[in-house]
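Notes from the 1:1 (GR / supervisor)

We went over the backlog. Supervisor wanted to see one worked example end to end before approving the batch request, so GR pasted a single chain during the call. The sequence is below; no edits were made to it. Supervisor asked that the structure be written out right there so they could see what the output format looks like.
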Amino acid sequence: MSATEQRATGLEERDDARRAERGARGRRKALRPVRMRRIAVVAPIDEFSAVLRAVGRDGCVDFHAGGRDPASGSAEAESLEHHLASAERRDGVAALAGWCPAERVPALTADVAAAGGSVVALPMPPLTDPPTLMRGSGRAYRSFSPLVRMYGTVPYADLDPTFLVGITYILMFGVMFGDVGHGALIVAAALLLRSGRIRALSRVRPLWPFLLGAGVAGMAAGLLYGEFFGPTGVLTALWLRPLEQPLRLIGWAVGFGVLLLA
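Structure output shown during the call:
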């Protein structure tokens, strides 16, 4: 290989390494909460109401006021009054501190300035974690996220565990309720939920990917157990029959639990 070819090969390898590093950084960033900035919205008292309405239209500031924006539907007057009452007032100026995603601060600053106010950057309070805002999106993410929320809010410094938790729940469901027939019924229910034909269930419609995964996992485990609406003998077990080999199944379950805790 000539010196020119060696240099070209070395450059290609460095480029590949840089792309891999950028990809790894991008994946880590996608798992981390959105970086937040502490800011204060400041405006003359007479214009503060209009400024808060502009902030509400942006919808990116958390003022710790019950989770509602200053201008949000039928609760607009109540929420706006709450924010106005919470503001600090001095020398004809009102100010209200909150948190905003760092990447949205420039746009917020422009909108607030157009309404007659300003956005002031504040130092990070000591011993205080910013509110957590995750980057995740998509049907599967929305389906899995309630599993995480029922345990509490993910700390600001942690990684987003939503997909790991969702996949773990699906696997555990399949292991515990493995049955081809029952799993098929859950799959059918998930597809019906996805269709949106039952309006009474519209609030839980986003959960259909989780139900679909649980049903498929149950069917797969049912094939391993040889169960079809119970141990009817319709199917041949591909691995073991839980009622005939309970200790072996328990051993595998304990090993799976140790793997999760490791």
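Supervisor's comment: The beta strands are 36-44, 88-90, 93-101, 118-121.
Batch request approved.
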